[in-house]
Design brief:
By secondary structure, the protein is mostly beta strands. 12% of the residues lie in helices and 30% in strands. The chain has helices spanning 90-99, 109-112, 141-150, 226-229, and strands at 25-26, 29-30, 35-37, 42-43, 47-50, 53-56, 73-74, 83-88, 117-122, 132-134, 157-174, 189-192, 201-215. It binds zinc ion.
């Protein structure tokens, strides 16, 4: 699992993404679209038993995704306060993974290439394999190159063109069926859509499985920098 490196904000990326959903910058640097801001708060809700799982006492249709999974509730105020580079905003992460938008700049990667999307993950010691699970969204070429160049944690990375990124499930917080309290765990639990525990999870991240993967060396894609970015089409 990975996210676009915060250090990818160089100020150069958004210069080429005219019409992007994502104009937010900090200190003159572009902040990745999925990054959470300090002005965005996670709201604790009273949990109740609903059907065969958990629900919010004051639940609204917006609290569940198209698959009926309950999602953590966060306020949305992109650009408010300071960027929390190590945190991801759940709703925007869900938006980019479900819509295959670039997680750095929110450009539509399917519009750019209907056949395949580019994924860049932290080095996992082997190429991205068939069915690899990730919470990362795709990246456009300019964001991939900026990430590789300016993001120390992703200097060691693996990248692949992916023909079929599929919705696999969610990563979230499982709840006890008796007490309805969160089960203690240090990290988020990956729960597939086929998993019977799905109704008992509070989703925090969308999880994709990557299929039809072809490893790629970003260096082979050409040193696309600011000049290349300016060639992107308007959205
Ligand atoms: Zn991008």
């Amino acid at each position: 699992m990975t996210q676009l490196c915060p250090a990818s904000g160089t100020g150069a990326v958004n210069a080429g993404h005219r019409g992007s959903l994502h104009p937010h910058t900090q200190n003159g640097l572009m902040v990745p679209y999925i990054t959470k801001w300090t002005g965005e708060r996670t709201l604790r809700r009273v949990m109740v038993r609903r059907g065969a799982g958990i629900g919010f006492a004051d639940e609204s249709p917006y609290d569940r995704d198209d698959d009926g999974v309950l999602w953590i509730r966060q306020t949305s105020a992109q650009g408010s306060g300071e960027a929390e580079y190590l945190n991801v905003h759940s709703a925007r992460q869900r938006q980019v993974t479900r819509g295959l938008l670039c997680q750095g700049c929110a450009v539509d990667t399917v519009e750019q290439d209907p056949q395949r999307q580019l994924f860049v993950l932290k080095d996992i010691g082997k190429p991205i394999g068939e069915g690899e699970l990730t919470t990362a969204g795709p990246v456009c070429l300019p964001c991939a190159h900026v990430t590789r160049t300016h993001c120390p944690p992703l200097r060691r990375h693996v990248a692949a063109w992916v023909e079929r990124p599929l919705l696999w499930g969610v990563a979230g917080i499982l709840h006890d069926r008796g007490t309805l309290r969160p089960l203690p765990k240090e990290s988020l639990e990956m729960v597939s859509y086929e998993d019977p525990r799905l109704p008992w999870v509070l989703a925090v991240r969308q999880v994709l499985s990557l299929n039809g993967c072809a490893a790629v060396d970003l260096g082979d894609l050409g040193a696309r920098g600011v000049d290349a970015m300016t060639g992107l089409p308007d959205r």
